C-alpha cells in the first residue's frame, strides 16, 4: 500500500487523546450554543452558577464550598496559594514533575519560604522522609500534585493529608488531571484547597479554574495579617460578597450577590451539564471506567513492548506516559499520528520531551471507542518510523481487558 496516503485528509480536526483538553460530550457542546446571559443577573447566580457549584461539591466529595474562576487550572493554583499564604510563611512543596515545579514557582511569587521535597520523576516517594521533613519545617502548608500530568504518576494524597494534619499544616492538593477520573475524597483526606481545571476529567471546555475550600482554609484566610495581593484571585471575596450567611458567608439574607470576578456564562452552563453527566454516571462507575480504560491502554502498549515512564505501582488512570523505542523521536511520532491518522497525543514535557509520549484517558476518551483507534494508529506510526510490530497485537491486548470488564 502506498505510504503517501493521508488517512486524515478529510478531518476538520484531530481526535484529542492528549492529557487535556479532552473531547466533549455533545450535551456539553450544546450548552455553549445558547444566547448570551448576563453574569450579574440574579437568574444566572440562582439557576446556573449555584447549581453548578453545588454539583461540584458532590464531585469533590466535600461538604465545603467550591468556586469557579475564569482561567485554567493554573488560575486555581494561584488563587489557592495567594489566598492562604502570606510572605514569610513556610511551605513544603512536593516536586515530582513539571507541575510540582510550577507550584513551587507560584509559592515563591506569593512570598513563601519554600522547602522543596524533591522526588525523582516517575518514582514513588518516601512518606516517612516527608513526615520527618514536615516535623522539621513545621510548615504553614504542604502542597502535592495528586496526579502528575507530566509523568503519568499518581501520588498518595490521603497519606500526605495525614502528614499535613499531624503538623497542623494546611493541605493544598492539585487535582488538575485527577478530579472526576480518579477517586478524590476531599473531606475524608483533609484537603483544604482542592485546585483543578475544567478541561480534563471534568469533561468541560477549557476556560475555568475550580477551587474547593474547607472550613480550615476559610479560617486561615480570615486570620491573615495582610490582605491578599490579588483581588480577583482572593477566594475570601466569595465569602464576603457572594455567599449567604446561611451557608457560612457574610451576606445577610436577601442581600444582593456580587461575584468578585465576572464568571463566563457559557462556560458555566457547559460545566453545569458536564457535572450533571458525571453525577448521572455515578462516581464509582466513573472511576472504574477510567481504571479499566487505562489498564487496556497499558496492555496495548505492553503488547508493543513499550515501557511505562513511571513506576507501574503509581501509574495513572488518566494520563499514561510511555517511553518511545530507541532511535524514534517522540515529536515525530506525534506529528505522524496527527497528520496521517487524525489522532493527537502528546510528547513528554521538559527533560523527557524527546523520548516519551503521553496519552490521555479522560472523561469521554476513557473508552474503547477512543483507545482502540489510538493504539492502532500508534502501532502503524511506529512501524513507519522503523519499529517492528505485529499488526493488531496492541488492539487485541486492549480488547481482552475491555472484554473481561464487560
Number of strands: 14
How far the N terminus sits from the C terminus, by CA atoms, comes to 36 Å
What string gives the helices and strands in order?
A: EHHEHEHEHEEEHEEEHHHHEHEEEHH
Give the amount of beta strand, in percent: 5-15%
Number of domains: 2
Shape: globular
Rg (C-alpha, Å)? 22 Å
CATH hierarchy: architecture of the largest domain: 3-Layer(aba) Sandwich
**Low-confidence regions:** none
Task: Explain what the structure shows.
The chain is of the alpha/beta class. It folds into two domains: 15-23 and 282-405, Alpha-Beta Complex (Aspartate Aminotransferase, domain 1), CATH 3.90.1150.10; 38-279, Type I PLP-dependent aspartate aminotransferase-like (Major domain) (Aspartate Aminotransferase, domain 2). It contains 13 helices and 14 strands. A seven-stranded mixed beta sheet has the order 2-10-9-8-5-3-4, sandwiched between helices. It is globular and about 65 Å long. The model has no long low-confidence stretch (mean pLDDT 96).
